[in-house]
Specification:
single chain; alpha+beta; tt1808, chain A; 6-stranded mixed sheet; globular
Length: 195
């Protein structure tokens, strides 16, 4: 993430008002705004595929999936951020009825890109782990069929499962659903050597 303005600190109210009017998305972290990078065609396609698959499978179970328009609030870090997708069972805890902001996702999905991969794997994952409801994390590679699935085992312990190849599937233990990599990567164009 890159700072939009480093000298001025914004209030939460100013940030939310700016986000309602902006054509770009920004993270809000301790008063600073950070512009979110735009996605490549593969990134956009994967995000749509994952959101659609989650919606189809979870709506049958009375659960909800959200796309990248939903903001996530992480109170211990005073952070408002966006994930590429998220999901939960039960009622979403909307901070305000007028804003798409929740603080209780169970699953968070990030599609990796060169500009965000280090952040998504490290500091952002650390931020997400401050959410008591958060217990599954999917990191999806966009240049080859490869997914990393983290499942929370306890407060200090996460289990990593790597899944690769278009014929593979990833089982989301806590949500009780399975996603196929074929569906996640539908219509994605890989460089020839990546497949």
């Amino acid at each position: 993430m890159s700072a939009v303005e480093t000298k001025r600190l914004y209030t939460v109210e100013e940030y939310l008002e700016l986000e309602r009017e902006s054509h770009e998305k920004h993270e809000f972290y301790k008063g600073e705004l950070f512009a979110m990078a735009g996605g490549s065609p593969n990134h956009t396609t994967i995000c749509m595929n994952v959101s659609s698959e989650l919606h189809q499978r979870l709506s049958r179970k009375g659960c909800r999936a959200f796309n990248s328009e939903m903001k996530i609030f992480i109170k211990p870090f005073d952070l408002y951020t966006y994930a590429d997708a998220c999901a939960l069972c039960g009622e979403p805890n909307f901070l305000k009825a007028t804003d798409a902001i929740i603080d209780n996702p169970s699953l968070i999905v990030e599609v990796l890109s060169e500009s965000t991969e280090v952040y998504d794997r490290s500091k952002k994952f650390l931020f997400y782990r401050a959410l008591p409801s958060f217990n599954e994390y999917l990191l999806i590679c966009q240049d080859r069929p490869f997914v990393e699935y983290y499942a929370k085992l306890s407060e200090q312990k996460w289990l990593l499962t790597e899944v690769q190849g278009l014929s593979a599937k990833v089982r989301l233990k806590h949500l009780g659903i399975t996603l196929s990599l074929q569906a996640i990567y539908a219509n994605v164009k890989f460089a020839q050597e990546a497949v």
